[in-house]
Structures
1.
Amino acid sequence: MILKYMLNYQADLNLAFQALADPTRRMMLDRLTRGPASVSELAKPLAMSLPAVVQHLQVLEASGLVTSAKVGRVRTCQVEPKALRATEQWIADRRTMWERNLDRLGAYLAETADEPDPS
Amino acid sequence: MILKYMLNYQADLNLAFQALADPTRRMMLDRLTRGPASVSELAKPLAMSLPAVVQHLQVLEASGLVTSAKVGRVRTCQVEPKALRATEQWIADRRTMWERNLDRLGAYLAETADEPDPS
């Protein structure tokens, strides 16, 4: 159970970071954090064909960062903050761990500096 | 100047997110946040050949997330927190923007709910 959860978690992170590794997809995500948008609204500022935009959107949807729903002939997209938070949390945890170890090293160096020089 | 800066920034983010999109590279980074390590120390818990580990290390170094230095015959690797912080900041900015817009929508809905029903 736990192993399956961990494998899913790792697979989700793979897809989310992969989705974020492209500047066009980051631009689309950037637009969507300001509110839901249709596919053509998403495509407007991008210098590429609509099928190319749809392909990027599919990568974003597969990663769980974006969801979309079709009403009539218009597909509206929106950010799914849960996946965004998971990626942020993964990085923040590592940064915190690194900083804590750096603090510990600093404290150790300060302590040993106070000790009288044995030479 | 600003355009060149923005292009570099985007390229850096591409490489950093790309590096984070692989579970082996995340494991290596995870190990390095607990302190510097040699390449063989990094390779120990991984079920792969040393050349495969070195290849992953090269991706991490190209992304700026990790630096390494060779002293004698031992190459020691460490985390470069600047690149880690840049990726975290990019995600945090989008999440904050999204939450702010959600708050605004909530406030708007609460306000309009107080208004007398015109029907």
2.
Amino acid sequence: MSNLFSNIPNSLPEEVFEDLHTSENLRIERILSHGHSSPNEGWYDQTENEWVIVLKGQGVIEFESGEVFTLSEGDFVNIPAGKKHKVVSTNPDKVTVWLAIFYK
Amino acid sequence: MSNLFSNIPNSLPEEVFEDLHTSENLRIERILSHGHSSPNEGWYDQTENEWVIVLKGQGVIEFESGEVFTLSEGDFVNIPAGKKHKVVSTNPDKVTVWLAIFYK
């Protein structure tokens, strides 16, 4: 047993990506952001599908299509493979905890 | 965009199981419990693997092997297919929100 909210550093000079579980068809990742946006330029263009939920803090995702979603605690979206997107901003005042499920 | 913590009934005579997302290799389910244990008799013996996290409340999972885990907010465990388990109890005072990832 592990805890999603443990081992959160006080200082986050960079975003932190951590695999919580991996298997053939699945990867479960914790992402910690603190005012970061990413990638710095361009778009995420992933070969895997991603279902992602914000569990602490707040983050804003923009899709190349122009859609913009502000995700607060409990908000989730599904991002099909190849759907270009980026994180425009995250809460500068507290750590944002994302739980991302990557699947084939 | 949807929210994991919205549409939680005030009264839960039975546990509520709701698919949030399904695809070929994946099913993401929200489970709401309120003092329930389940199944009433016997063990869950699943054909899919399950990664499960408690995000509100508290639940106690027992494995046939004798292991018992008390999951509070943020605690997660992975349950391989065929690993018999049951929910011994959940918090009687508030709704417990589980997020379960079933995968092949």
